[in-house]
């Protein structure tokens, strides 16, 4: 498709704010929670991260698409975002390993997008008004008509989504003589599994709703709770599973949603943030070592600081240097810890990969 031939598309926000632009990717209509990611690279990894399921992504990096897509640089089998908003979208791409244009890739996976909109204005708007739903369409260009579709989009708060992106059947990966690790797949990024396998873990990846009795039948040495989409507070099945792991005194590591579930299992609440953290340069301080890390993040919920600080069960290990939110926890007198950010990065800096080594040391 030539750039000038692109059909029109529109973006409507829940508060009525309306943007006109050009259609990219799939021609259609799709709504979700609008959020922005400030990362300058790694768009394909971001779009395929299952934690973004049901969200419309605004990239603050103006130039998107210019290095195309590669089938191996994915965090899951397909893009999980529900829509894409960019400022300057490039259909032609230049990269020696590039396989397919981002436009074709999004079209193939039925992800609609809009480009040629003022992404800085959109980001400033949602940053000051808070998280909200939005809808993209290249079919319904009238705001009033589109509003009827937008009204059908559920709010992220109270949504259970992990079971929609989790694996359907359990599978095993890694060296068979490695440490047996039960991995709860709430929407796991493939680079997390890679980090675990690279360190010699023999992983069995279980569907989100697998009960503790079933995971225990495999006789795992340790447990891992993955990242994933949706609201942790309504995931009773996963919170109960985490409680069982903690009660059984099994070594446990959780990332992002996994961190929130461990907090919930310890009686600590989570809340919907006014704006989430999504980017590759969130500064975090490790309180135990005194060192700071630049971290990759993607979350819209967070654990309630006061409840953490009043808890006898947990200890804070990491804090966010931008807004003091809790970034890491350790359960007292247990081999259990978790972080809100993404130590596997992908995309992002590798400052925090020591946490995977820490998990091995803890088990040994
Ligand atoms: N990356 C994640 O695991 C995200 C966790 C959760 N869905 C949130 O938005 O906070």
Automatic annotation (TrEMBL):
Record-listed L-glutamine binding positions: 51, 228, 230, 257, 260, 298, 300-301
* PROSITE patterns xref list: GATASE_TYPE_1
| Catalytic activity entry | L-glutamine + H2O = L-glutamate + NH4(+); hydrogencarbonate + L-glutamine + 2 ATP + H2O = carbamoyl phosphate + L-glutamate + 2 ADP + phosphate + 2 H(+)
Q: In which pathway does it act?
A: Pyrimidine metabolism; UMP biosynthesis via de novo pathway; (S)-dihydroorotate from bicarbonate: step 1/3; Amino-acid biosynthesis; L-arginine biosynthesis; carbamoyl phosphate from bicarbonate: step 1/1
Q: Name one GO biological process term.
A: 'de novo' pyrimidine nucleobase biosynthetic process
Looking at its record, which EC class is this enzyme? ligase
The EC number(s) given in the record are 6.3.5.5
Q: Name one Pfam family in it.
A: CPSase_sm_chain
Q: Which family does it belong to?
A: Belongs to the CarA family.
Q: What does this protein do?
A: Small subunit of the glutamine-dependent carbamoyl phosphate synthetase (CPSase). CPSase catalyzes the formation of carbamoyl phosphate from the ammonia moiety of glutamine, carbonate, and phosphate donated by ATP, constituting the first step of 2 biosynthetic pathways, one leading to arginine and/or urea and the other to pyrimidine nucleotides. The small subunit (glutamine amidotransferase) binds and cleaves glutamine to supply the large subunit with the substrate ammonia.
* Protein name per its UniProtKB record: Carbamoyl phosphate synthase small chain
Report the source organism: Marivirga atlantica
Species lineage, top-down? Bacteria, Pseudomonadati, Bacteroidota, Cytophagia, Cytophagales
Protein's gene:
carA
